[in-house]
Specification:
This is DASH complex subunit DUO1. By secondary structure, this protein is mainly alpha-helical. The chain has two domains: 71 residues; 51 residues. It is 93% helix and 0% strand. The chain has two helices and no strands. The model has no long low-confidence stretch (mean pLDDT 91).
Amino acid sequence: SSKQLALERELEQLTAVNSTMSSVLESIGSTKSNLTTLLQATNQTNSLLELWIKILNQANFNQELINDTTWQGSLSSETKWQDRVGKLNDVMNKIDAEKRKREQEVNAKQNLEKVRQQRFND
């Protein structure tokens, strides 16, 4: 019967559509997996690029030091910094000494004033 044939064709078409949809869903799942892999690869690439940039910056810094005729090596630089720190410590010690001297002067004046007050009250 024609109705039976129409139903069978419709069933075949639905089976084909279901098969196609299954393929599409598998492709979507595969695409998700591939995108995850791509994201991981991109993150690793970014990490490698950041590391490479640091290496290039250090190499550039080293090249500048090598070409700098005034640079006398790290030991000389360290010695200069130690000299500067020593000078700063000297200045700080002078400031502390001056502060103590002024505090002593203030205390001496206060003590003198107390003695005068006691003599005046006696």
